[in-house]
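Lab notebook, bench 4. The sequencing result for the construct came back, and we need a structural model before the next group meeting so we can plan mutations. Quick request posted to the team channel:

Model the 3D structure of this chain.
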Amino acid sequence: MNSISRFCIVNTVFAIAALKIAGCEKSTTDKAGGASSMGTDAARCPHQIKQEKCPFCTPKLIEADGFCAEHGVAEALCYQCRPYLKAAFRAKGDWCKQHNAPDSQCVTCHPELKSKTQPGAGHNVAVKPSAASPGAPGHCEHGIERAKCPFCTPSLIETDGFCKEHNVAEALCVKCRPYLEKAFKAKNDWCAEHATPESQCVACNPELKNKKPTGG
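Done. Here's the predicted structure in token form:
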């Protein structure tokens, strides 16, 4: 066998070995990536949100969370108070793009829903029947409904559970319940720099990092 033939054979062997190594690395990466992706998906329900917050996967929330008199719909279905619900409604195919609201609550597209609309409700929402729906209460001294205010109704902190996603009591979670911003500001508990309650601002209060969450 001449030197040229030997050189070709050696190069071919090295090329095959390199391809196998590259294939193994890609396979390992794919498996790792797949595991990570599965872990992320496993944390969410078929409606793309946390299962414990999903009124479609956990229907008991509709009765347990009461009624949103401000927007005329069950609290657990109120996408205005709980913006994360938009993803769930879209996943169910229940979304009116034109009016940026669940189609099942869009009074503009479905005038027949007006007869079910709670007085004082927003123009694009309709009542979702619920046995636990109370009358429309007034706003508290913190600028929100007393029934939704964790400062006026502290029992909410225990009954509403813990928001593991944001590491705070659900009743105090501004990210899940944006309307709470008004209440925290009314209590002078607001960090404008980081757009979060001062009492929850880790950037301004590093010692909060070591504080163990309660109710988790």
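The first strand starts at residue 67 and ends at 68.
Will bring this to the meeting.
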